Amino acid sequence: MTDQRTPAQSADAPSENAPDRRAPEFRPYHHPAAGWGAAKSVSRFLLREREFVDGPRAVQRMNHEGEGFDCPGCAWPDDLKGLRLDICENGIKHVSWEMTHHRVGPEFFAAHTVTELSSWSDEQLERQGRLTHPMSYDPDTDTYVPISWKDAFALVGRTLRELDSPHRATYYTSGRLGNEATFLYQLMARELGTNNLPDCSNMCHEASGRALQAALGTGKGTADLKDWEVADALFILGVNAASNAPRMLTSLAEAHKRGAKIVHINPLVEAAATRTIIPHDFVDMALFRSTPTSSLNIQPRIGGDMALLRGMAKAVLAEAETDPKALDREFVERYTTGFDAYRALVEATPWEEIERQSGVARADIAKAARVYCEADRSIFSWCLGITQHEHGVDTVREIVNLLLLRGNLGREGAGPSPVRGHSNVQGNRTCGIDHRPPQEFLDRLAKACAIEPPREHGLDTVRSIEAMHRGEVTVFVGMGGNFALAAPDTAYTSEALRRCELTVQVSTKLNRSHLVHGRRALILPCLGRTEKDLQKAGKQATSVEDSMSMVHLSLGMKRPASPHLLSEPAIIAGMARAALPDSDTPWEWYVEDYDRIRDTMARALEGFEDFNRRVRLPLGFRIKQPARELVFRTASGRAEFSAAGLPDVVPADGVLKLGTMRSHDQWNTTIYSDDDRYRGIKNLRTLIFMNAQDMRDRGLTLFDEVDITSTARDGSTRSVHRYKAVPYDIPRGCAAGYMPELNVLCAIGDYSTQSDQPLMKNVDVTVRPSGTGDGDRAAG
Ligand SMILES: Nc1nc2c(c(=O)[nH]1)N[C@H]1C(S)=C(S)[C@@H](COP(=O)(O)OP(=O)(O)OC[C@H]3O[C@@H](n4cnc5c(=O)[nH]c(N)nc54)[C@H](O)[C@@H]3O)O[C@H]1N2
Ligand SMILES: Nc1nc2c(c(=O)[nH]1)N[C@H]1C(S)=C(S)[C@@H](COP(=O)(O)OP(=O)(O)OC[C@H]3O[C@@H](n4cnc5c(=O)[nH]c(N)nc54)[C@H](O)[C@@H]3O)O[C@H]1N2
Ligand SMILES: [Mo]
């Protein structure tokens, strides 16, 4: 493996004498999630960001019926009643982060070379504030210098026109992008002639999309918030809801209050699996009254969910022998196919294998199965703990298998409900960001937009990185996000980006991806979601789609951070016109009034008929989903059981399965602080959570320094040094630590053969006390 270290990676823990290094602390957290802890954290944060006046005002306008902007924090749907302050600690932080008073202007870039900035921490970079001017990299001075929008677009246009094939460029989307900009972006790529449209979804829910598509003929969940309100049982798998989808806490607490059962399945018992104080319930807040959010916690080994789910299915089928109601035979016969093969496989899978692969005792699996059998209506909800594995697709299909057994589909209070990540990642896919677009989508697009879209598949995230590394792709456009840090194999990805002829980053804040750049590089600053977007026809709103397929408008109301910012649709149109001077697409006309984009989308996208009217309804509209109506667009026209064998997920002796995850105080690559409140951690990110016995086996105690070495499928190794070990309630053989830092350990070639997703929750590592092993010599 390469040993080129880029300053970009924080492969090593910062040295002890680095400034601002407070002593790490670890004190297990015993309070309810959210509540006053969250309120305190918010006020401290707002004070620090000097947003005490604007912050709360903005928050009142967030996620509100009618006017207001959609919280860019996560994709959890808005409270349907539209009356309460449906907000959360992390949403407030996220919004305030965008509204900071700090600015990164031309003077800043003149004062700091890129080489110097490369030695800054990621947190320091983003803390500098909002970008204000378009900037272009000047190799002579190693600085970014101002460039006019016109010249910036001309540079992009010229470079793209000079490529000998449109496939030499790749167009990344991070899931923030509104639907209208998304539509223009994919239109630009396809009019240029490529489906190279990698997105962050390639790293989060690709597995869910593919599994649901194959099983049910839809790429999305079918349950919505109303269903959550009436379900009898909720199964929550592989999500840290208190930190990453905090508004789910409200649904969990309300479910508990009405007597529904909640089962959490996670190697870690996360804060959402204990108790919560609902932040907008003022009485509960005042009385410190908390509500339990769990009836049962099950801790499988990392990657052990599929075996656990199969065990539940085995118990359901066994139960059906004495209690026919356990199995919904009528549903199975009428709507599904593949049941006999599935039942045979489940019956042939011995309990010993299920226990060994799941790491959960049969008696505990039976408890979960009991909850399932006793509930008339069940929802299964999951996130990255399920998807970022080799067998992510099979596991999501096993969830569907289990739902089908009891007819938990197409009726109120039941169904699959994946928790999406970025606030509009689901909308991005709906509106065309797909490197494997269905032919019917391309046919409609061709007709609505009078273009000849390319028909062959394009590159996803991993394949784009490999192609840049080989020199086959030479232009990278990043529509938001922080690709250099978010993608796997930090060193390899950095090399890949550096080999580009041109890298273009459309961003709101300074980040690592601006410093890991191609021969030519542009930073194009855009409006944030909270800001007023004024175009020729007046104030513009953009639409977004949440986790549960609700599409609604988001209207920014803050004064833009700088008069030089452009909206994302305007930036895309500027690049498109420069690259396609003779294009018949009315790029400029579209940007004058986003209703015009929506009119075209209404013709191009299924389910968007009458888009402009319906999106203005008080809560927007729900995209119709055939699977919800028991119409299955699968090969068989039925819901399909799958019958995949159980994967072997038990690590070899001495090896730990490492899952990389977020702390409470971060938003993907944006780190707010080094604290992780609900896990009891202060002032520390370079850590590894381990089972206490696994620590003793290695002679480790709290905060001992360790080197962590991963071994990839191709045998190559990667290491990080001087991380601190923390004993934690996690099954033996499992370990956890933080992304994006630990992307250093994720090999580029280690992605799922089922979903092409990098195996970010499934890294084989060895852990040794620092300074005692090969880890010292292993390359970065
Ligand atoms: N505040 C905040 N909100 C966010 C984000 C953020 O960074 N900050 N990111 C957004 C994005 S883009 C996304 S995709 C989502 C991510 O939301 P999550 O999926 O919650 O993200 P992670 O922090 O990666 O946490 C994964 C969870 O999976 C568990 N896990 C790990 N391995 C396994 C396993 O094998 N099986 C099971 N059952 N569980 C496992 C971990 O213990 C952890 O609780 O959140 C979104 N919301
Ligand atoms: N090891 C490991 N790696 C992971 C994961 C993991 O669990 N483990 N999770 C993966 C997942 S699920 C995801 S989604 C990716 C996240 O990958 P990305 O989406 O690429 O990363 P973010 O950190 O969300 O991007 C932050 C940047 O977005 C820009 N930005 C913010 N708001 C806007 C806006 O409104 N418009 C524009 N144009 N730019 C804006 C800012 O400049 C900010 O610096 O990371 C993936 N990487
Ligand atoms: Mo994500």
Structural notes for this entry:
Residues 1-33 are annotated as: Disordered. Residues 18-28 have a biased composition (Basic and acidic residues). Pfam families: Molybdopterin (PF00384). It comes from Streptomyces andamanensis. The protein is 34% helix and 16% strand. The chain is α/β, with parallel strands linked by helices. The chain has 3 domains: 2-30 and 651-769, Beta Barrel (Barwin-like endoglucanases); 42-203 and 425-626, Rossmann fold (3-Layer(aba) Sandwich); 206-418, Dimethylsulfoxide Reductase, domain 2, CATH 3.40.228.10. Helix 26 (512-515) links the parallel strand 17 and strand 18 (520-525). The structure holds ligand MGD (2 copies) and molybdenum atom. Molybdenum atom binds at residues 200, 204, 421-422.
Core attributes:
single chain; alpha/beta; Barwin-like endoglucanases; Rossmann fold; 3 domains; six-stranded mixed sheet; six-stranded mixed β-barrel; 31 helices; 33 strands; binds ligand MGD; binds molybdenum atom
